[in-house]
Design a protein that fits this description.
By secondary structure, this protein is an alpha/beta fold. It has 23 helices and 20 strands. Among the domains are: 1-42 and 168-181, no CATH class; 45-152, Nucleic acid-binding proteins (OB fold (Dihydrolipoamide Acetyltransferase, E2P)), CATH 2.40.50; 255-285 and 300-423, P-loop containing nucleotide triphosphate hydrolases (Rossmann fold); 455-612, P-loop containing nucleotide triphosphate hydrolases (Rossmann fold, 3-Layer(aba) Sandwich). Helix content is 38%, strand content 18%. The protein has a seven-stranded parallel sheet, with helices on both faces. A six-stranded parallel sheet has the order 15-20-19-16-18-17, sandwiched between helices. Strand 19 (559-564), helix 17 (572-579) and strand 20 (590-594) form a beta-alpha-beta unit. Helix 8 (270-284) packs parallel to helix 9 and helix 17 (572-579) packs antiparallel against helix 19. The longest helix has 30 residues, at 212-241. Bound molecules: adenosine-5'-diphosphate (ADP) and magnesium ion (MG).
């Protein structure tokens, strides 16, 4: 049967239109989707290995055991959250099962004396008891504890489906796969090289492992497959970008670069000098520059971009710089205009707000080569924006541009332009390779001299009124303040979050009754946002109550205070980026983190922020605390999220897959086999990268 994986799930027994709807909510429409819906990799239930409580290892690993419920109680955490504890026993000992969040309601299901099958993470508990958390509980009578059941998968489900529903459906899908075969997705020579199991064998063992050893082999193959195909897809995309256009060789630094350097009210720091040496070296080479400039917020990246733009202009070429928002583009325009004084080089800006007549003039000047430097937003990407000799593309991004957007800009030249990507977030090497391809990196650590570090304080909500009073004092002294909230309205907020609307309303009624104050959030129209932001930048508004929409590089040196409500909701790196909005002038600035979550983890996290102003260190801690997945979703780069592979954890596999991909693409027959394989992939979200 051809393309059996495209059949709708309703072609399986036991799935009617109602159940199909439930599957659809999980993103499962076809038989192929079902096979791609992988179970939780750390939660298989291995019936052939039931431990007694005494045998449970208290090393935090997931284990399974059977026990008798004794009693269930509710308790309160330090932060005032409720959770439930079920005490269980067997002949060998006791364990306490912790149920947090909505899970605590499950406690009622287990009456004293009933038997439970428990899977969860086991750690040492109180006294002799063991503590079990992140649990999956099943009443034992639902199962005959039949060891021949083998290893069962556990899926992440919504209420309307049970584990049994899903297992039954996947079993049928696997029968189909076995009968009709799953086509190969990676070249045979590679499967052989690594001794990978077949695709059917792998998918089958991921859902229903014949043994944990077979599961590991299956996973190894599927992780490789994701990374290999991702690399191939990206390399193919890049072939369209670097399609053999000649690169540009810039001359040695000349008069305009020197003039810009003279215009700076400061001299370059050692880190800036090093970065500039890297970049001018690249630009003087005929090979197109492809460089990532990483530097913390406020480290002075804009100056470097200005020098690169000056260099391209003095060589008679054009350069552009793309920023993620209109406000940032406007700020770049102002800074660059200042730096380029006396050079005779005009700089213009193009955004979605540019008036038609102005836009027409800019396009004309660009096409004729009279305009050398253009600053802009996504508006630069439009088809009718045509340069006559674009030689330098700078993107100032904070994870806001997708792979395809950057390519669209780079393709606007008859040459292969030099590309400079500026980012404030440290990006691990393997992620950079994946997202940006072969990229060189310059890192600027530390800050320009004379900057006062932002003082960061952390308080609980009972100090809120004092904190607000402090804000009013700052404002009366002529300064400005931000109040940052984690959500827009109460309705879409989780419990206990002070929404931006509420905080604004409250402040307008109380502390800020007669102080001009703005409200900013993502649901406003772009023009409204710009207007409010500009009024704040101009000092007309004294306080800005906002969500994280201000995260991206705005520069208001007069703002000296930032108050963050519900600080526990933000990541460390994010709080650091936010905090970078203050401390931009010569006055001492403050960042006050308000939180009512007194759990040790949260306080430890916020303490890191209190103790360090180093964005690189914080990003590193964030990685340790939150894991890579949350921080570096590939989707924000316009790439598919991976199902099994983790770009940071699977570094070795990624590097191997990358080498293989290069070799495969270089050989016509293997390349053909790879393309055929990618077409066989029935993972629609992932295959998308091959069609772009
Ligand atoms: P980034 O874009 O990296 O966040 P900016 O380029 O906006 O940082 O620079 C932040 C501030 O530091 C600007 O006000 C800039 O004038 C100032 N600055 C940059 N380089 C230096 C330097 N070498 N010495 C002193 N101040 C500097
Ligand atoms: Mg910047």
């Amino acid at each position: 049967m051809e393309n059996w994986w495209q059949k709708p799930v309703t072609s399986l027994k036991g799935i009617g239109s109602k159940r199909a709807e439930a599957f659809s909510r999980l993103g499962i429409e076809t038989v192929g989707d079902l096979l791609n819906f992988y179970p939780r990799l750390d939660s298989y239930i291995d019936y052939s290995h039931l431990a007694t409580i005494r045998e449970l290892k208290t090393d935090g690993s997931r284990q399974i055991f059977e026990a008798e419920a004794m009693r269930a109680v509710e308790r309160y955490s330090g932060g005032g959250r409720r959770y439930a504890v079920i005490t269980v026993k067997d002949e060998t000992g006791y364990a306490e099962i912790f149920l947090f969040g909505a899970q605590r309601f499950q406690a009622r299901r287990f009456k004293p004396g009933s038997r439970i099958l428990v899977t969860g993470r086991v750690k040492p508990g109180r006294g002799a008891a063991k503590a079990v958390s992140e649990v999956l509980l099943q009443p034992c009578d639902e199962y005959s504890l039949d060891r021949s059941v083998g290893i069962l998968p556990v899926y992440n489900l919504t209420e309307s489906l049970t584990q049994q529903n899903l297992r039954a459906a996947v079993r049928q899908a696997l029968q189909m796969a076995q009968a009709y075969g799953i086509p190969e997705t990676i070249p045979a020579i590679i499967c052989k090289k690594y001794g990978f199991p077949s695709r059917f064998e792998s998918v089958s063992n991921l859902h229903f492992p014949a043994s944990m050893e077979r599961f590991r082999l299956a996973k190894r193959r599927l992780v490789y497959e994701e990374l290999f195909l991702l690399q191939c897809g990206l390399m193919l995309n890049r072939e369209h970008t670097h399609d053999g256009r000649p690169g540009i060789k810039h001359g040695r630094n000349g008069e305009i670069v020197r003039q810009v350097l003279r215009n700076l009210p400061f001299s370059l720091t050692a880190a800036q000098q090093k970065a500039w040496a890297d970049i001018s070296g690249d630009m003087e080479d005929v090979k197109p520059m492809h460089r990532l400039l990483q530097g913390d917020v406020g480290s002075g990246k804009t100056v470097i971009a200005a020098l690169a733009l000056a260099k391209t202009a003095e060589n008679g070429f054009q350069g552009c710089i793309m920023a993620p928002t209109g406000i940032l583009a406007q700020q770049h325009l102002e800074t660059l205009t200042e730096y380029f004084k006396g050079t005779g080089i005009a700089i213009k800006i193009l955004t979605s707000n540019t008036k038609t007549a102005e836009r027409r003039e800019i396009l004309q000047e660009l096409a004729e080569g009279r305009l050398k430097i253009l600053v802009g937003t996504h508006a630069l990407l439009q088809d009718d924006v045509v340069f006559s000799h674009l030689a330098l593309v700078v993107t100032d991004e904070q994870h806001r541009f997708g792979v395809n957007q950057r390519a669209a800009l780079v393709n606007k030249s008859e040459f292969a332009p030099d590309v400079l990507i500026m980012t404030a977030t440290p990006i691990p090497r393997t992620l950079a390779l994946t997202v940006y391809g072969d990229v060189e990196t310059s890192v600027m650590r530390g800050m320009p001299p004379g900057r006062k570090a932002v003082e960061t304080l952390c308080y609980t909500g009972d100090m809120r009124q004092q904190v607000y009073a402090g804000m009013v004092r700052q404002i009366r002294a002529g300064r400005q303040a931000y109040v940052v909230c984690a959500s827009i309205d109460e309705s879409d907020a989780m419990e206990e979050v002070r929404s931006v609307n509420d905080v604004y309303a409250e402040l307008k009624k109380t502390w800020l009754k007669d102080i001009p104050c703005g409200l900013l959030h993502g649901k406003l129209k772009p023009a409204e946002k710009d207007e409010i932001m500009e009024a704040f930048a101009a000092g007309k508004l004294k306080c800005l109550v906002t969500t994280t929409v201000i995260e991206v590089g705005v520069n208001v040196p007069n703002a000296t205070l930032m108050i963050v409500e519900n600080a526990e909701r933000f990541g460390l790196a994010q709080l650091h980026q936010l905090r970078g909005r203050v401390g931009r002038g010569d006055k001492q600035s403050y960042c006050v983190l308000l939180t009512d979550n007194l759990e040790a983890d949260n306080l430890a996290r916020l303490a890191v922020l209190h103790n360090s102003n180093d964005g690189f260190e914080l990003a590193q801690r964030d990685l340790e605390l939150r894991g890579a997945g949350q921080l570096f979703g590939l989707r924000q780069h316009g790439l598919p999220d991976l199902r099994l592979a983790d770009i940071l954890r699977d570094t070795d596999v990624l590097l191997a897959a990358r080498k293989d991909a290069l070799r495969v693409l270089a050989q016509p027959e293997l390349r053909q086999e790879m393309l055929q394989g990618a077409a066989n992939l029935f993972d629609s979200c992932f295959a998308g990268i091959f069609n772009s």
